[in-house]
Structures are given as structure tokens and as C-alpha cells.
Amino acid sequence: MANNLVILESPGKIGAVKSYLGSNYKVIASVGHVRDLPKSTLGIDTENGFEPHYINIRGKGDLIKELKKEAKNADKIFFATDPDREGEAISWHLASIIGDDAKKAKRISFNEITKSAVKEAIKHPRSIDVNLVNSQQARRILDRIVGYQISPFLWKTIKSGLSAGRVQSVATKIIVEREEEIKKFVPSEYWTITANLKTAKNRNVISHFYGKKGKKVKLSDKKQIDKVLNELNAEFIVSEVKRTTKPRAPQPPFITSTLQQEASKKYNFQSQRTMKIAQELYEGINLGAENGGAQGLITYMRTDSLRISQEAQASAKEYILDKFGEKYYPSVSRIFKSKNNAQDAHEAIRPSKVTLEPNKVKKYLTTDQYKLYKLIWERFLASQMASAQIDTVVVDLENNGYNFRSVGNTVLFAGYTAIYGDIENVDNADADSGIFEKNKLPNLCKDEQLSSKSIEPAQHFTEPPLRYDEASLIKFLEEKGIGRPSTYTPIITVIISRGYVAREGRYLKPTPLGEVTTKLMNEHFPEIVDYQFTANMENNLDIIANGSVTMKDVLGDFYKDFKVSLEKANVVLGEKEIEVPVEETDIICELCGSKMVIKNGRFGKFAACPNYPTCKNTKTLTEDGKDTVSKPEIKVDFKCEICGSDMVVRQGKFGDFYACSNYPKCKNTKAKDTKLDLNCPICGSEIVTKFTKSKKQFYSCSSFPKCKFSTWDIPTEEKCPVCSGMMLKKKNRDYSYCSNEKCGYKTEEK
């Protein structure tokens, strides 16, 4: 019997892939990259063809030994890392690691983790695509050169520990520029007039001021408003009725950026959370024997292609015809065109099987997984359905030479909105007629008279542009061609974690550090933070992937100009130091009355009195993903058992705890439950840390003891490869096991 080895990138896929291939295949995971550039040096020979110096990643020694051992024992080796440039590069590094045994290795890739996709990939192995590898290498080398050769300027002129990045610096600049727009914005006044009217048959009509004598007029001040109101009379006459019926086509299936935007809009998911859930859905969920066991529910989630396979399209057509009928399927199957710079290696994000309806698999998914799967499933099905037909009526009314306008819509045919409802009242449809209403107007005729119930003027002021949230920033990056699907989330994560940008509610605001750093980059490295330059560099990476240009040529052209900028910056900046403005808060120091400022400490941000060391008052700050504010003392519903004073919630080094309000006279404290970003494997509620009376820590469902889940061991984000249950890490022992006692799966102790 042949001894075949399949090397995946993620251990989360092992269970599903192994179940498809049988006993003569051993399936293991590289757990991401096994080699990378060294952290202590540049690791690139800029004088000799930009040759990178790769080393084995620290901490992966045992894994590399295992990979070599398994490769030596295998008859055939299949590199099955993710189907993108990063995955191709990981396969290339794996080939380098296993040495001579790479001669019996082939590359396979699958866009979805289903039995048919995996089996088909095994039948059609190929060689590693060196052009794709070089594209990934070029990106890594560019980022390393920019990061390692600009960062020292930031250390010297601003403060130590800062870092520059080829794309992160551009993303910070985008947010800084928006903040500058907001600061410079001057609001302007404008007015609206709303007329509440009624017909002779006592039907209500709402109409809005449009203009005068058929021309649109902007109402900019009270004087103008008073003139109009004084000249209006009680009767409005219908001057024109325009009726049009237009089709509304569905949106295309999701790509990475649009999925992140829609998940943010509908569920307020941050991009990192969206991609984590999508990864879980892609890698595989155990759906029980009745649904075929463990399998991936969606196709690969890092894509900017709108392409759909013929098989998926045929499957969608069959489902739509069966569930909705012929009129819900378009006369010609829909094909969506991807953007010119899209990588068409794999499809749009879609369900692996349309027959796996969200409600059928809901019990096997966490709440977040269900929400995202439902969103992807509905968007894909809708993208293949017929257009909605909307009847629009525009009614113009005249009153003493002034024009008012009313607009009403009736949805004559729901089409795709029957499954992806973006039109109100679809659920209240008359199933027989198929007619849905939104903002429906009564039937009005030319020259018909309507009487005024009330006329309401309203003053408004123009608003400054909104700060970017994650969704709108990703949309901007995509529109400008900056970054690629795999980089959007890491970009945002980096600029926040390094203190250039902070969250304020759901929005992103530059910090003083971000503003100062952007100013320095604009002055001394303008090309690095130029939108078009960055987009062109992304296109160059695409061209390397196509084999039209070499990695060495692209890097050489870049470095020639970059080196000149470095030398100039060295001369101009010299030993100059730039002071970062302090970030003021609205918190008043109760000891001296000054406005407190934000400082960074060992355990994160805190508020400090600006008069230090004369006044040493400080306050803890909380960052809950929504805002950064002074943490007030919150009273709880029990008293201190030592002195009888109120107990309050305070924040410490390891999170929130209960403390006596009489501190420091009374130093009584109690541990407080701390929420983990994990869901209970039994009921889906949040998992929290708890403490026994003897202060031993354990973990339980937040609804414990109603829900019986509790454990002394450590809950993890890992899923069991057998049943997709939560894996628990054994305390003081180096192995993990499935929380589902009936499963019994556990890893080998190291």
C-alpha cells in the first residue's frame, strides 16, 4: 500500500481532509510558515540581486524534524497549503526544508474543503509555481527593506520602538488626511421644507420642496425660507406624474473586501473577527453523519475575483428553480466581471454546497459562524437570481410658482430580494400577487388638488466627512488598488497595535504619534506614502506572478530611488528630534484641576496629570473596542465583609476585580469574572473565568450553573479535527483534548 503524505497549512483542516483520503494518506500541518527572514538583521543582500537569507522560524524545530521524518518515509508528498501566493511560498519553503525528498513532492490546491474538491486536486498535482512564489517574495522583501531602513529614522527623530511599513504608512496617512478634512471643515447652513398634504379622499401625501418654476433651488437661510412660506397658499396642484418600471439587479457574490464591509454594516464585526470566522467555515465544521460529516462550508475567503465555477452556477440554478420557480431565474445566467487587477486564481466567496441551507446546519455552528454563513449563502443565491422589478412614481406639485416633489416605489416582482431582502416589507408580501409596497403613493392625476395639513421648515447644517471605520477604510484601499485581500486585516491590526491609530467607537482616529509620523513620511519619503505609487507596486507584484517581469527588476527599480531618499533623509534629519504632542482627555484631575493626558505604560494606556512630578495622580483607562474613557468606580450589590463599606469594580494588571471603596484603609479585594472571546461549546454563551472561595481559577459558561459547562483546563480557539468541538489545553501538561467527552480526541503530549 502506498504511503502518501499531505502537508496542509492549518491544523484545522486535518480532520476533514483525512476523512476524504483514507488510510494510505497521512495528513499533517506546517502551521503556517516554517522559514522567514531573520528578525535581528535586514536579511537581504541589496548589493547582489536582493538575495534573501531565510532561517527556520524559532520554536518550529520539533515540527521541522517531524516534517522531515514523515517526508523521508513517504512514497509521494503533496503540498496542500492555501491556494494563494502566500500558500505557494509556504510550499516552496517546505520543499527547501525537506531537501532531497522534495523530488517526490507535488503541489495541489483546492478552493473548497469538500470531498470532491480534495479528491480532484489529488488527481491533478502540479509543480510549485515559481512566479507566484517570487511575487510573494518580492512583497516580503519590499516590506522588509522599507520597514528596516526607514524605522531607524523614526527611532532617532520621534521615539524608539516605532516602525514604518510600506502599506501601513499609507493606511495611516489615509486616516490622518481624513482627520485633517474634519478639522478644516466649516459647516454651512441649509433648510428644507416638508409639506404634509391630503387628497380629496383624505389620503396622506408627504412632499418636499424642490425649487421654483421647474428649476432646483437650494434654501440657504431663514430669510429665503420666510419668503417661500409667506408666498405659499393652502392648495397644491399636481403638475406632472411620471411612472417608470426599472429592474434592480442583485449584487455580485462576496469577495474579501465586500464580505468584511457587509459583516461590519450588518453585525458590527471588525475585519479580524470576520476573517477568523470565515477561516473556520472554510477549514471545516463537523455537520454530523446526516450531512456528510466534517467539511468546509465556504470557498476560500481571501479573493478579489467574482468568478463562479460552472458547477456552482448549475447547482444554484437547480436550487432556485426548485425552491422559487422559473420566473426567479434570469433568462441568461449571470456572470460578474472582476476588476482588472483582480487575481483570478480562485472563485468568489460562496457556499461549498447550496443545499446546505443555513437553518439545516445552524445547530452545528456558533452564533457568529451561523450569521456569517447565512450572509454568504444568501448573497450567493441572490446573485444568481432574477432582478427585482420596481415601479417608481414621481409626482411634481406646484404652489404659487414653487415646486414640491413626492416619490413612491412599488416592488412589482421581488426577484432576488425574496432571499436577500434589501427592500422593506418583502416579508409582508401578498404571496399570490407577488406585489410588495414601499413608500407607496395614492393614485394621483395631473391637475388634482391637494390641501395642506401642515408645512414644516427645518434648519440643517452640513456635516463633516465621517472618520473611516474598518469597512470604509477597506473600501478605500480596494478602490485605490492598495493592498490585496490577504493584507487588509493585517494592515488595520498593525496600525492600531503600534499606536498610530486608535478606535473611537467603531471609527478610526489618528493619534498624535500617527500624525507626526505621517508628516515625517510625507516630507522625506513621499513616494512610500503616495497612493498611486503603492497601487503601481501592487500591479508590479501581479506582473511578477504572471511571469512578465522578474522579481529582481522590480526590486532594483524600487531600490534605486529609495536609496536616494534614504541618503537625503539622513542629511536633512541629522540628529533632529521631533516632539509628539500629548493627547489630552476630558478627564479633570481632582487633585489639581488640570486636564489629564494619555500616557503609555507597561500594562497599556493610562491617564496621568500633566503636572507630573508635582502632581502624580493617575487613572486607569479601558479600551472596549468602542471608546477609551476614564473608568468610573461602579458600585456592586454587596458590601465589604471586613469593614461594611461599598465594594466597587476596579481595573488591575490582570483585568477587573472587586475592591473595597475604603481603600487604602481597607485593602479587601475579590476576583471578578472575566469574559473570554470564546463561546460555550454547549449553549454558545460567553465563557468567563471564575474563582472558587479558595481563589482557584476555573472556566465556565457565563450562564453557569444553568448551563453545566465548566473546566479547570484552558479553553482555546482550536476546533477538534474529529467533531469540531472546543479543544481544552491541559494545565501544567503539554497536550490538548476535546471538550466533548463522547469524542475523546486528544493530542499527543510533547
Structural class: alpha+beta
Mean pLDDT: 87
Give the low-confidence spans. 423-436, 623-632
- β-sheet strand percentage: 25-35%
Structure, explained:
With 750 residues, this protein is an alpha+beta fold. The protein contains 17 helices and 36 strands. The strands form ten sheets. Strands 9-10-16-15-12-18 form a six-stranded antiparallel β-barrel. Strands 21-22-23-24-25 form a five-stranded antiparallel β-sheet, with no helix packed on it. It has a four-stranded parallel β-sheet with strand order 2-1-7-8, sandwiched between helices.
In brief:
This protein has 750 residues and is α+β, with helices and mostly antiparallel strands.
Give short descriptive properties of this protein.
single chain, 26% strand, 750 residues, 36 strands, six-stranded antiparallel barrel
Write the layout of secondary structure elements.
Layout: E1 4-8, H1 14-21, E2 25-29, E3 35-36, E4 44-45, E5 51-52, E6 55-56, H2 61-73, E7 76-80, H3 85-98, E8 105-107, H4 115-123, H5 130-157, H6 168-184, E9 189-198, E10 204-212, E11 215-216, H7 222-231, E12 235-248, H8 256-267, H9 271-283, E13 285-286, E14 294-295, H10 310-323, H11 358-361, H12 367-383, E15 388-399, E16 402-413, E17 436-438, E18 449-461, H13 470-480, H14 488-497, E19 501-504, E20 507-510, H15 512-524, H16 531-546, H17 551-573, E21 583-588, E22 595-601, E23 604-608, E24 618-623, E25 628-630, E26 634-639, E27 646-652, E28 655-660, E29 669-671, E30 674-679, E31 686-691, E32 697-701, E33 710-711, E34 714-719, E35 726-729, E36 736-738
Parallel strand pairs: 1-2, 1-7, 7-8
Antiparallel strand pairs: 3-6, 4-5, 9-10, 9-18, 10-11, 10-16, 12-15, 12-18, 13-14, 15-16, 16-17, 19-20, 21-22, 22-23, 23-24, 24-25, 26-27, 27-28, 28-29, 30-31, 31-32, 32-33, 34-35, 35-36
Helix pairs in contact: 3-5, 5-16, 5-17, 6-14, 6-15, 8-13, 9-12
